[in-house]
Amino acid sequence: MPLLIVLAITGTIYCFQPQIEPLLYRDRMIVADTYGPRFSRDVLLAKAAASEPRGAVPTLAQIEADRTRSAEFVFRLPSGESENVYVDPYNGAVLGRLSVEHRLMKQVRNLHRSLMMGKTGELLMELAGCWTLVMIGTGIALWWPDRGSARKGGVWLPRLSLTGRAWWRDLHAVAGIWLAAGALFFVLSGLPWSGSWGKEFKALATSASLGYPKGAWGEAHVHSTAPGAAAKPADEHANVGHAGHAHDDGRPAAQADAVGRRRDGSAARRERTEIGRTRAD
Protein backbone atom coordinates (compact mmCIF):
# COMPACT_ATOMS: atom_id res chain seq x y z
CA MET A 1 0.00 0.00 0.00
CA PRO A 2 2.75 2.58 0.77
CA LEU A 3 4.23 2.02 -2.68
CA LEU A 4 0.83 2.51 -4.32
CA ILE A 5 0.43 5.77 -2.43
CA VAL A 6 3.84 6.91 -3.71
CA LEU A 7 2.81 5.96 -7.25
CA ALA A 8 -0.49 7.81 -6.97
CA ILE A 9 0.99 11.02 -5.54
CA THR A 10 4.02 11.25 -7.82
CA GLY A 11 1.97 10.25 -10.86
CA THR A 12 -0.57 12.98 -10.15
CA ILE A 13 2.18 15.59 -9.73
CA TYR A 14 3.84 14.45 -12.95
CA CYS A 15 0.58 14.81 -14.89
CA PHE A 16 0.61 18.52 -14.10
CA GLN A 17 4.18 19.10 -15.27
CA PRO A 18 3.13 21.63 -17.98
CA GLN A 19 1.34 23.71 -15.33
CA ILE A 20 3.87 23.35 -12.51
CA GLU A 21 7.16 24.02 -14.28
CA PRO A 22 6.27 27.50 -15.61
CA LEU A 23 5.54 28.45 -12.00
CA LEU A 24 8.84 27.06 -10.73
CA TYR A 25 11.00 28.40 -13.56
CA ARG A 26 9.06 31.48 -14.56
CA ASP A 27 12.19 33.55 -15.22
CA ARG A 28 13.26 31.06 -17.90
CA MET A 29 10.01 29.77 -19.36
CA ILE A 30 7.80 32.88 -19.45
CA VAL A 31 8.44 35.94 -21.61
CA ALA A 32 6.52 39.13 -22.32
CA ASP A 33 4.63 39.09 -25.59
CA THR A 34 5.92 42.09 -27.55
CA TYR A 35 3.38 41.45 -30.34
CA GLY A 36 6.29 41.61 -32.75
CA PRO A 37 7.83 38.97 -35.01
CA ARG A 38 9.71 36.08 -33.45
CA PHE A 39 13.05 34.78 -34.59
CA SER A 40 13.02 31.60 -36.65
CA ARG A 41 13.84 28.28 -35.06
CA ASP A 42 17.24 28.17 -36.77
CA VAL A 43 18.26 31.59 -35.47
CA LEU A 44 17.14 30.73 -31.94
CA LEU A 45 18.99 27.43 -32.08
CA ALA A 46 22.17 29.21 -33.18
CA LYS A 47 21.92 31.63 -30.26
CA ALA A 48 21.33 28.77 -27.81
CA ALA A 49 24.25 26.81 -29.25
CA ALA A 50 26.54 29.84 -28.96
CA SER A 51 25.95 29.88 -25.19
CA GLU A 52 26.84 26.20 -24.75
CA PRO A 53 30.32 24.73 -24.27
CA ARG A 54 32.24 23.40 -27.24
CA GLY A 55 31.09 19.92 -28.18
CA ALA A 56 27.49 20.33 -26.98
CA VAL A 57 25.08 18.62 -29.39
CA PRO A 58 21.45 19.78 -29.85
CA THR A 59 19.00 16.92 -29.41
CA LEU A 60 15.57 18.53 -29.21
CA ALA A 61 13.85 21.84 -29.95
CA GLN A 62 10.51 22.96 -28.53
CA ILE A 63 8.94 26.21 -29.61
CA GLU A 64 5.48 26.69 -28.17
CA ALA A 65 2.60 28.22 -30.07
CA ASP A 66 1.93 30.22 -26.88
CA ARG A 67 3.58 33.59 -27.50
CA THR A 68 4.37 34.05 -23.80
CA ARG A 69 6.60 30.95 -23.68
CA SER A 70 10.30 30.93 -24.38
CA ALA A 71 11.93 28.65 -26.92
CA GLU A 72 13.46 25.55 -25.31
CA PHE A 73 16.40 23.57 -26.64
CA VAL A 74 18.02 20.48 -25.19
CA PHE A 75 21.74 19.88 -25.62
CA ARG A 76 23.80 16.81 -24.81
CA LEU A 77 26.93 18.06 -23.08
CA PRO A 78 30.40 16.53 -23.49
CA SER A 79 30.05 15.21 -19.93
CA GLY A 80 27.14 13.02 -21.06
CA GLU A 81 24.46 15.00 -19.21
CA SER A 82 21.71 16.95 -20.95
CA GLU A 83 20.82 20.59 -20.43
CA ASN A 84 17.80 22.74 -21.32
CA VAL A 85 18.54 26.19 -22.71
CA TYR A 86 15.77 28.81 -22.81
CA VAL A 87 15.84 31.63 -25.35
CA ASP A 88 13.60 34.69 -25.67
CA PRO A 89 12.01 34.29 -29.12
CA TYR A 90 11.65 38.06 -29.57
CA ASN A 91 15.20 39.30 -28.90
CA GLY A 92 17.25 36.10 -28.88
CA ALA A 93 18.52 36.55 -25.34
CA VAL A 94 19.45 33.39 -23.46
CA LEU A 95 17.25 33.40 -20.36
CA GLY A 96 18.87 30.56 -18.46
CA ARG A 97 19.54 26.83 -18.26
CA LEU A 98 18.23 23.79 -16.43
CA SER A 99 19.83 20.41 -15.98
CA VAL A 100 17.56 17.75 -17.47
CA GLU A 101 18.74 15.20 -14.92
CA HIS A 102 18.31 17.45 -11.87
CA ARG A 103 15.15 19.45 -12.55
CA LEU A 104 12.32 18.82 -10.09
CA MET A 105 10.01 16.94 -12.44
CA LYS A 106 12.82 14.59 -13.41
CA GLN A 107 13.23 13.72 -9.73
CA VAL A 108 9.48 13.20 -9.38
CA ARG A 109 9.58 10.89 -12.39
CA ASN A 110 12.51 8.94 -10.94
CA LEU A 111 10.68 8.60 -7.63
CA HIS A 112 7.56 7.42 -9.44
CA ARG A 113 9.42 4.97 -11.62
CA SER A 114 12.10 3.56 -9.32
CA LEU A 115 12.05 5.24 -5.89
CA MET A 116 15.40 6.77 -7.01
CA MET A 117 16.95 3.32 -6.54
CA GLY A 118 17.76 2.51 -10.15
CA LYS A 119 16.92 -0.90 -11.57
CA THR A 120 16.23 -2.34 -8.11
CA GLY A 121 13.61 0.32 -7.47
CA GLU A 122 12.04 -0.24 -10.90
CA LEU A 123 11.59 -3.94 -10.17
CA LEU A 124 10.22 -3.16 -6.70
CA MET A 125 7.60 -0.76 -8.06
CA GLU A 126 6.70 -3.16 -10.85
CA LEU A 127 6.31 -5.99 -8.34
CA ALA A 128 4.04 -3.78 -6.22
CA GLY A 129 1.83 -3.12 -9.24
CA CYS A 130 1.64 -6.80 -10.19
CA TRP A 131 0.91 -7.86 -6.61
CA THR A 132 -1.94 -5.34 -6.55
CA LEU A 133 -3.56 -7.30 -9.38
CA VAL A 134 -3.35 -10.41 -7.21
CA MET A 135 -4.97 -8.58 -4.28
CA ILE A 136 -7.76 -7.25 -6.49
CA GLY A 137 -8.49 -10.70 -7.92
CA THR A 138 -8.48 -12.50 -4.59
CA GLY A 139 -10.48 -9.69 -2.98
CA ILE A 140 -13.21 -9.98 -5.59
CA ALA A 141 -13.27 -13.75 -5.08
CA LEU A 142 -13.76 -13.32 -1.32
CA TRP A 143 -16.42 -10.62 -1.83
CA TRP A 144 -18.40 -12.57 -4.46
CA PRO A 145 -21.90 -13.32 -3.04
CA ASP A 146 -23.01 -16.95 -2.66
CA ARG A 147 -25.18 -18.23 -5.49
CA GLY A 148 -28.83 -18.00 -4.56
CA SER A 149 -28.10 -15.83 -1.53
CA ALA A 150 -30.76 -13.22 -0.87
CA ARG A 151 -28.41 -11.17 1.30
CA LYS A 152 -28.13 -7.57 0.18
CA GLY A 153 -26.20 -6.09 3.08
CA GLY A 154 -22.45 -6.36 2.88
CA VAL A 155 -22.47 -6.61 -0.92
CA TRP A 156 -22.89 -3.09 -2.23
CA LEU A 157 -23.40 -1.31 1.10
CA PRO A 158 -21.89 -2.13 4.49
CA ARG A 159 -24.13 -3.51 7.23
CA LEU A 160 -24.14 -0.77 9.81
CA SER A 161 -25.79 -3.04 12.36
CA LEU A 162 -22.57 -5.03 12.73
CA THR A 163 -19.95 -4.22 15.33
CA GLY A 164 -16.31 -4.97 15.92
CA ARG A 165 -14.25 -6.95 13.41
CA ALA A 166 -17.32 -7.96 11.40
CA TRP A 167 -18.13 -4.31 10.72
CA TRP A 168 -14.54 -3.59 9.64
CA ARG A 169 -14.58 -6.63 7.32
CA ASP A 170 -17.86 -5.48 5.75
CA LEU A 171 -16.51 -1.98 5.28
CA HIS A 172 -13.31 -3.29 3.69
CA ALA A 173 -15.17 -5.64 1.33
CA VAL A 174 -17.71 -3.05 0.16
CA ALA A 175 -15.18 -0.23 -0.22
CA GLY A 176 -12.81 -2.59 -2.01
CA ILE A 177 -15.35 -3.67 -4.61
CA TRP A 178 -16.26 -0.07 -5.38
CA LEU A 179 -12.60 0.87 -5.75
CA ALA A 180 -11.58 -2.28 -7.64
CA ALA A 181 -12.33 -0.92 -11.12
CA GLY A 182 -10.35 2.27 -10.53
CA ALA A 183 -7.45 0.36 -8.97
CA LEU A 184 -7.42 -2.07 -11.89
CA PHE A 185 -7.26 0.78 -14.40
CA PHE A 186 -4.62 2.52 -12.29
CA VAL A 187 -2.31 -0.50 -12.35
CA LEU A 188 -2.93 -1.76 -15.88
CA SER A 189 -2.42 1.68 -17.41
CA GLY A 190 0.91 2.04 -15.62
CA LEU A 191 2.45 -1.37 -16.19
CA PRO A 192 3.04 -0.84 -19.95
CA TRP A 193 5.51 1.92 -18.98
CA SER A 194 7.45 -0.28 -16.56
CA GLY A 195 10.77 -1.95 -17.31
CA SER A 196 10.28 -5.71 -17.58
CA TRP A 197 6.49 -5.97 -18.00
CA GLY A 198 6.42 -2.96 -20.30
CA LYS A 199 9.18 -4.34 -22.51
CA GLU A 200 7.23 -7.55 -23.11
CA PHE A 201 3.99 -5.61 -23.61
CA LYS A 202 5.63 -3.41 -26.24
CA ALA A 203 7.00 -6.47 -28.04
CA LEU A 204 3.55 -8.06 -28.05
CA ALA A 205 1.87 -4.88 -29.29
CA THR A 206 4.48 -4.47 -32.02
CA SER A 207 4.10 -8.06 -33.22
CA ALA A 208 0.32 -7.59 -33.37
CA SER A 209 0.66 -4.25 -35.23
CA LEU A 210 -1.04 -2.43 -32.35
CA GLY A 211 -0.18 0.84 -30.64
CA TYR A 212 2.50 3.10 -32.08
CA PRO A 213 3.30 2.88 -35.79
CA LYS A 214 6.71 1.74 -36.96
CA GLY A 215 9.28 4.42 -36.26
CA ALA A 216 7.69 5.78 -33.09
CA TRP A 217 10.44 4.13 -31.01
CA GLY A 218 13.26 5.24 -33.26
CA GLU A 219 13.40 2.39 -35.77
CA ALA A 220 12.54 4.55 -38.78
CA HIS A 221 11.82 8.04 -40.00
CA VAL A 222 8.69 9.30 -38.24
CA HIS A 223 7.74 12.33 -40.31
CA SER A 224 4.84 12.30 -42.73
CA THR A 225 5.66 13.42 -46.27
CA ALA A 226 3.17 14.51 -48.89
CA PRO A 227 3.14 12.26 -51.96
CA GLY A 228 5.67 13.53 -54.50
CA ALA A 229 7.22 15.99 -52.07
CA ALA A 230 10.95 16.39 -52.35
CA ALA A 231 13.04 14.96 -49.53
CA LYS A 232 14.67 17.41 -47.17
CA PRO A 233 18.44 17.93 -47.46
CA ALA A 234 20.37 15.44 -45.37
CA ASP A 235 22.09 18.13 -43.32
CA GLU A 236 18.80 19.71 -42.25
CA HIS A 237 18.51 17.30 -39.33
CA ALA A 238 21.16 19.33 -37.51
CA ASN A 239 18.61 22.08 -36.90
CA VAL A 240 16.79 20.12 -34.23
CA GLY A 241 19.27 17.39 -33.41
CA HIS A 242 19.31 13.77 -34.47
CA ALA A 243 16.11 12.41 -32.88
CA GLY A 244 14.00 10.34 -35.23
CA HIS A 245 15.96 11.23 -38.41
CA ALA A 246 17.68 8.76 -40.70
CA HIS A 247 21.12 8.85 -42.38
CA ASP A 248 21.45 8.82 -46.15
CA ASP A 249 22.10 5.08 -46.10
CA GLY A 250 18.80 4.45 -44.32
CA ARG A 251 20.23 3.77 -40.85
CA PRO A 252 18.27 5.46 -38.04
CA ALA A 253 20.13 8.24 -36.30
CA ALA A 254 20.61 8.30 -32.54
CA GLN A 255 17.43 9.07 -30.64
CA ALA A 256 17.13 12.24 -28.62
CA ASP A 257 17.76 11.72 -24.93
CA ALA A 258 15.51 14.64 -24.04
CA VAL A 259 13.71 14.89 -20.72
CA GLY A 260 13.70 11.13 -20.20
CA ARG A 261 12.86 8.19 -22.43
CA ARG A 262 9.17 8.99 -22.43
CA ARG A 263 9.70 11.66 -25.09
CA ASP A 264 11.16 9.22 -27.59
CA GLY A 265 9.10 8.76 -30.71
CA SER A 266 5.59 10.11 -30.18
CA ALA A 267 6.60 13.09 -28.06
CA ALA A 268 9.42 13.95 -30.48
CA ARG A 269 6.88 14.21 -33.29
CA ARG A 270 4.73 16.42 -31.09
CA GLU A 271 7.67 18.77 -30.52
CA ARG A 272 8.28 19.11 -34.24
CA THR A 273 4.61 19.65 -34.86
CA GLU A 274 4.64 22.51 -32.38
CA ILE A 275 7.67 23.95 -34.13
CA GLY A 276 5.83 23.78 -37.42
CA ARG A 277 2.83 25.60 -35.98
CA THR A 278 5.04 28.27 -34.47
CA ARG A 279 6.89 28.88 -37.71
CA ALA A 280 3.57 29.31 -39.48
CA ASP A 281 2.48 32.07 -37.06
Query: What Rg is obtained from the alpha carbons, in whole angstroms?
Result: 25 Å
Shape, per Cα inertia axes: elongated
Largest sheet: number of strands, sense, barrel closure: 4 strands, antiparallel
Spatial strand sequence of the major β-sheet: 1-2-3-4
Could you name the ranges where pLDDT drops below 50 across 5 or more consecutive residues?
220-281
Our estimate of the beta-strand percent is 5-15%
* Count of individual beta strands: 4
* Helix-strand sequence: HHHHEEEEHHHHH
Query: Which structural class fits the helix and strand makeup?
Result: alpha+beta
Helix content: 40-55%
- Average residue-wise pLDDT: 78
* Number of helices in the DSSP assignment: 9
First and last CA, distance: 49 Å
Brief synopsis:
The protein has helices at residues 2-15, 17-24, 26-29, 41-50, 104-114, 118-143, 164-190, 196-207, 266-279, and strands spanning 57-62, 71-76, 82-87, 94-99.
Architecture overview:
The protein has 281 residues and is of the alpha+beta class. Helices cover 45% and strands 9% of the residues. The chain is built from nine helices and four strands. The longest helix is centred in the middle third of the chain and has 27 residues, at 164-190. Mean pLDDT is 78; it is low at 220-281.
